[in-house]
Specification:
alpha+beta; 13 strands; 2 domains
Length: 330
């Protein structure tokens, strides 16, 4: 199995990988004019995925995509990853191969490579752990701190699709030839990291702070505000809630706005910038990728995040994903 893993990864190496799978560590060519980024993220069966809802390739893709999204959040370019898979010995060996294929497919689709990894037997659930490196020009790197009072708060793309996809799986809904449901399921199983969008934002050097939306806007925006020492006001009527999510919400009696606020795993970009820079940044993102940018609120001096309804009154939002709330699957 290890040799199969090595063969699959070796066929997709990029030029930045000097030493790939087979040695004790991977070696990467460094670039003096850039910072090396390093991130890691783990997916655990029963917490982040269920094997009855996702193929091995889906699991591998998602494990790599969430790490790619972290590199995107810094405005970076992904380079190479190592991945570890832990799984019970009574599961088919083919599962590890499928996960590896998904890892490699996601990496290759975004200009990265799987440079090595490990496979171990485990009495517990399937676990996929990925560590990913990336590069970013020092002057272009974006972080969670830096937002300033008066800044516009923006998001890329649409919100709520992954949450709606999870609802479809929980409710036993299949696409049945319906493009909208198929898109929601795809959004949950194989999220798209916004790397090109992030790089366009970083190159412009106009944004003041940025992060990716992994746990839901209601949880992630307060984290950005806390790091920046500011507060925020969000006009909920401006949220770009995915139309297919809204349609599903109406069908099953769920609140579409709540999906957009708390659903998590959208992996869109949340960033702040001076109001005068919005047009330039939205134009740069659109020209590079076709992805829309939406202004959803503003940064304020007073700490705390306020979500405002259409009448201007504060509304209460639910909680995003909690990694330590056992039994929850986001």
């Amino acid at each position: 199995m290890v040799s199969r893993f090595r063969d699959l990864a070796g066929a997709a190496l990029t030029a930045s990988v000097v030493v790939g799978p087979g040695d004790d560590a991977a070696a990467l060519r460094t670039r003096d004019d850039r910072l090396l980024l390093l991130t890691c993220d783990m997916l655990v069966e029963g917490v982040h995925f269920r094997r009855e809802w996702a193929s091995g390739e889906d699991i591998g893709w998602k494990a790599m995509a969430v790490n790619l999204s972290d590199i995107a959040a810094m405005g970076g370019e992904p380079a190479a990853a190592v991945a570890s898979i832990a799984m019970p010995g009574d599961l088919p060996a083919q599962l590890a191969s499928e996960i590896a294929q998904g890892l490699i497919a996601a990496a290759s689709a975004h200009g990265a490579a799987l440079a090595g990894g490990d496979l171990v037997g485990s009495p517990g659930p399937v676990v996929v752990d990925v560590a990913l490196t990336g590069w970013v020009e020092e002057g272009s790197m974006l972080r969670r701190h830096g937002a300033r009072p008066g800044d516009a708060i923006c998001v890329t793309g649409l919100l709520g699709a992954s949450a709606a996809g999870l609802i479809c799986l929980r409710e036993g809904l299949t696409d049945d030839g319906c493009p909208e449901l198929a898109r929601l399921l795809q959004a949950h199983r194989r999220p798209t990291p916004r790397l090109r969008e992030a790089q366009a934002i970083a190159r412009a050097r106009l944004a003041t702070a940025m992060m990716d939306l992994s746990d839901g806007l209601a949880d992630d925006l307060p984290r950005l505000c806390a790091e920046s020492g500011v507060g925020a006001r969000i006009a909920c009527e401006r949220l770009p809630v995915d139309s297919a999510s809204a349609s599903l919400a109406g069908r099953i009696g769920t609140d579409a706005l709540e999906m957009g606020l708390t659903g998590g795993e959208d992996y869109e970009l949340l960033f702040t910038c001076p109001p005068a820079a919005v047009s330039d940044l939205a134009g740069a993102v659109s020209a590079a990728t076709g992805t829309a940018v939406t202004v959803i609120g503003e940064i304020v001096e007073k700490a705390g995040v306020c979500f405002l309804g259409p009448d201007g009154r504060a509304i209460t939002s639910g909680q995003g994903f909690d990694h330590f709330a056992l039994g929850l699957l986001h």
